[in-house]
Amino acid sequence: MLLLGTAPAMTAANNPLVVWQGGLTIVTVTTPACDGVATVGEIATAIFRPRLDPAEPASALSVITQRTAGFYQRAGGTGTDKMGGSGSYKGMFVNERAGILQNFTGSFNFSLSPADPLSTTNFTSLQGTITNFTGATGCAVTVRGSFALRP
After folding, report:
1. Are 70 and 133 in contact (CB under 8 A)?
2. Residues with Cβ < 8 Å from 113, sequence gap 6 or more?
3. Which of 16, 41, 83, 132 is the most interior residue, by most CB within 10 Å?
4. What are the structural domain ranges in the chain?
5. Residue 29 burial (C-beta neighbours within 10 Å; 0-12, 13-18, 19+)
6. What pTM was estimated for this model as a whole?
7. Which among 45, 46, 44, 57 has a CA at the least distance from the CA of 17?
8. What pLDDT digit, counting tens, does each position of 49-107 carry?
């Protein structure tokens, strides 16, 4: 029964959501804005979730280092935007002292391979830049990541 004032829930074609998991390497950093935040050569575990269906949440990238975790979700975007190219994000960050920084913003510029991953794509890669990395204003990092489809 549909009540007045309510809308039917949208159901994504992929339930659970399709994700790729793997590693992300920090290739370059800006200094001094990134001092104590990111180090060239640092390796992180990462989960990449491009939007494969318009009913899914916006594309996102989770980055987990030895002591911290960040979440970057595309702001705006429509359809199946997949987080390739340039855009802006909304982020959350948990620091090495269990402090949480919420609702920071920045931009990204990523190239994806393949450019249009499907739910059956076994491997994908991402490389490009993230500004305000971990919520640190002015900290821009270049990253390179390789991911395998999560079973």
Report:
1. yes
2. 124, 125, 126
3. 83
4. 22-149
5. buried
6. 0.88
7. 57
8. 999 999 999 999 999 988 889 999 999 878 888 999 999 999 999 988 888 888 899 99
